[in-house]
Specification:
This protein has about 600 residues and is α/β, with parallel strands linked by helices. Helices cover about 40% and strands about 15% of the residues. The chain has a six-stranded parallel β-sheet with strand order 7-6-8-9-5-10. Strands 11-20-19-12-18 form a five-stranded parallel β-sheet.
Length: about 600
């Protein structure tokens, strides 16, 4: 079958048309590789792993890709394919084929990270030791990973802090920023806070404002701690749908320290632009959970940065001297390994917590143990192993009963508090157990209960989620609004830094109903109770990270409505994205030098290629 008859998406077809204009004699195998690069990019992969696809039939029975050796030879001989540093639409590195722009993003990000890791700042160790002992005096765990994370963040220009829900990432970052400000040369640091979404940014700012009030530091240090946070897009000055941003190496951010929360949600392109825009001597502190879902766009940067972590003997000795902690020695396999610290003690889930134990078994890939735990009947876990659509809708109505009653009273604070008591999460948007169908079915029931016209969209109690950023209104993708009755009529209320704000229903940016939301959209949120629904049929969306992310949104209780096979498939499926960042950061096993010297290739700030 000719490539012209393959079921390609419009973007893939446009790419092939462009490449054929550049080289009318391009072989089918080269064009097929380009189409697949585009296709896997949409699925989250940064590159095409030739060994994974060689000989396969990616579009059904119509077209078979060549064997690996033949395919690689044809790619190497094509004018459309270059080596790293070449100006070509496609770049081949070993067995990885990239669209050129994404190869440049990955190479530049690796070079930036390694360059900053090699540039160690001057540290007053006596002051740092005093700061750590005072700021973390109440921590009794051994080793105290929060204290170790703070120590490394002060001693290095790149710090990566990963931890599950309730492990104190925000508490740690507030204290480490205070320790950094207490350094003799750091009194006037410009510190920025950012997150991928407006909701996450607002939550981070609020958490830091609350946490800094009780810090055992001077008023001047408290005053220097930031209280406002921005979205990454706004921080960089994104220009609509164009890939270019206002802040680059030529126009860097006016920051000495940048803290990024929910970093697991940051894709490769955004992270590369962020590092390029940060001044050469700037510090980067990334907070996230390596086990959560990756970014919607291509890349799993945060998870790759957490690979190969560990403290060698020298780093462990330094940290023990500074903190008084016994530090385990583990030779890192990444050149950034000792900049990565995992927080392991959960303050949200007690040792006997069913949710905490379930999270551990999911992350361990223990499908049998997960099902066994769900059958124990723990107080904070409930498993509905034979769900039906009718029973599900009745249970959801019951879950939102208290919220809908509260919403009729018209008081925003009470309505939001009630809405966060219970939340319905799903794995997918479509299908009987998808967001769209469940929201539609629920709202039809609510309209009948309220005796509204079937086509009436707005009513007191309707919950909506904003789907696009509107900087003029101060509303951002992921923000939740609640429709309430006011003397002026129905208005949609949102939580903001200044309190609750009401908007006319006609002024809102694009939005959807939000009684049901995807697990992806729930990242960073917390609810008292969660009802997680998995699809009836096998789905590529089911993965360990999705299951883990969904159940850990619950603080007190989680219900899982899913067939046993779907739970087993989710736990057994470890979603891995094709990328090369971890390999670029890896320690050379032949030398085990551990040097953080940046590679020569890709270290510059040249304009990114077209493709």
């Amino acid at each position: 079958m000719s490539l012209s008859h393959l079921p390609l998406a419009p973007l893939e077809r446009a790419l092939l048309d462009s490449l054929q204009r550049l080289d009318p004699s391009a072989s089918e195998s080269v064009l097929a590789a380009a189409a697949l690069c585009c296709q896997v990019l949409n699925n989250g992969d940064v590159c095409l792993l030739l060994a994974r696809w060689a000989g396969q039939r990616p579009w059904g029975e119509g077209y078979a890709l060549p064997p690996l050796a033949q395919w690689r030879a044809e790619l190497s001989g094509s004018t459309l394919v270059g080596a790293p540093g070449d100006f070509a639409p496609l770049i081949l590195e070993g067995e990885r084929l990239y669209l050129a722009r994404y190869q440049a993003y990955e190479a530049q990000l690796a070079a930036q990270l390694l360059s900053r890791a090699a540039d160690l700042p001057a540290v007053d160790e006596a002051q740092l030791s005093d700061s750590l002992n005072r700021l973390f005096a109440s921590n009794l765990q051994q080793p105290d990973w929060q204290r170790l994370a703070a120590a490394q963040a002060v001693r290095k220009r790149v710090a990566v802090i990963s931890g599950g829900p309730g492990t104190g990432k925000t508490t740690t970052v507030v204290r480490l920023l205070a320790a950094l400000l207490e350094q003799p040369s750091s009194a006037r640091l410009a510190i920025g806070l950012a997150a991928p979404t407006g909701k996450a940014a607002a939550r981070m700012a609020e958490a830091i404002r609350q946490a800094k009030a009780n810090l055992p530091v001077s008023d001047s240090i408290k005053a220097a701690l930031p209280e406002q946070a921005s979205t990454l897009h706004r921080l960089l000055g994104s220009r609509g749908d164009r890939p270019q941003v206002r802040h680059t190496a030529a126009n860097p951010l006016a920051l000495d320290v940048l803290v990024v929360d929910e970093a697991s949600m940051v894709d490769l392109a955004m992270m590369a632009k962020l590092l390029e825009a940060l001044p050469a001597n700037g510090r980067l502190i990334l907070l996230g959970d390596k086990d959560q879902l990756c970014a919607v766009e291509a890349g799993a940067v945060f998870a790759e940065l957490c690979d190969g972590r560990g403290f060698d003997a020298a780093a462990a000795a330094d940290l023990q001297r500074l903190t008084g902690q016994t530090v385990p020695v583990e030779s890192p396999t990444s050149k950034l390994g000792d900049a990565v610290v995992l927080l392991t003690h959960s303050h949200r889930f007690a040792n006997d917590s069913g949710i905490g134990e379930l999270a551990r078994r999911i992350n361990a890939g223990d499908a049998r143990g997960t099902l066994s735990l769900l059958q124990e009947g723990r107080a904070d876990l409930h498993w509905q192993a034979a769900p039906t659509p009718q029973a599900l809708l009745e249970r959801i109505e019951q879950g939102y009963e208290g919220y809908l009653a509260t919403a009729q009273q018209g008081e925003p604070s009470a309505a939001f508090a009630a809405f966060n008591q219970f939340r319905l999460l799903t794995a997918q948007r479509e299908g009987a157990y998808g967001v769209a169908g469940l929201n539609e079915a629920l709202e039809a029931r609510y309209r009948r209960r309220l005796r509204l016209n079937a086509r009436e969209r707005w009513y007191a109690g309707r919950a909506v989620m904003v789907q696009s950023n509107d900087y003029a209104l101060g509303l951002f993708n992921g923000d939740i609004g609640i429709c309430l009755q006011t003397p002026q009529g129905l208005r949609v209320w949102f939580e903001t830094d200044e309190g609750h704000r009401a908007f006319s229903t006609t002024r809102l940016p694009s939005h959807d109903s939000a009684f049901a939301m995807t697990v992806h959209k729930s990242q960073g949120s917390e609810f008292s109770e969660v009802l997680l629904v998995l699809p009836e049929l096998p789905s590529p969306l089911l993965s360990r990270s999705l299951f883990y992310t969904g159940i850990t949104r619950a603080k007190q209780r989680v219900e899982i409505w899913a067939l046993a096979p779907r739970i087993g498939e989710a736990v057994a499926t470890r979603a891995e994205r094709a990328a090369g960042l971890a390999e670029r950061l890896a320690v050379d096993p032949a030398t085990q030098a551990g040097s953080a010297a940046p590679p020569e290739s890709g270290a510059g700030h040249a304009q990114l290629p077209l493709f």
